[in-house]
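Input chain follows. Return structure tokens only.
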Amino acid sequence: HFPGSLAPLPDRHPQYALMEVSELRSEQEARDGLERLLGDGLEQDLVRDATVAQSLAQSAAFWALRDHVSEAQQMECKNIKHDIAVPISSIAEFIRVTDAALAAAYPGVRHVTFGHLGDGNLHYNVAPPVGVDPERFVTDDLEAVNRIVHDQVVRMHGSISAEHGIGQLKRDELRHYKSALEIELMQRVKAALDPAGIMNPGKVL
């Protein structure tokens, strides 16, 4: 969807990590440290391949790939979006298990997963199989897809909402996963801080 974009590595891989490092002493110190880290990762079979930007322009091109993900998926088709968080140590397992569960329920379903590796925040988005009407998928299958994803998040002691909050779209989901007592405590805090109900009314509670 973005002509001129270049793959950073010659082979395709299931997941990519984009890292940016800084060093107070010098650019060379930063480069040497990153290359040592990548070398250790390759030796321990934690990294399959890697490349290091050789210029600010190349660095910007790498970041453009990440920055264009949201717009590219919008151009591809409508999809069911999730803004979730799981413990960092559980990210790989969450993706493996949830991908498999959705593939079993919706053969051919497509996954667009990206996010913030350092804090466990994932944008776990689900696109319909090729040939399935995206409008129908995001309407008719929304609740069932959400249940598969959010149930797995909760099993892994994560949060069904990360950087974007509960808002209006996840109010019913919040009540599904929180006890009546937890909701009551939220309502009490809200009432104490905003007795007139004028602060962001109609959201969450």
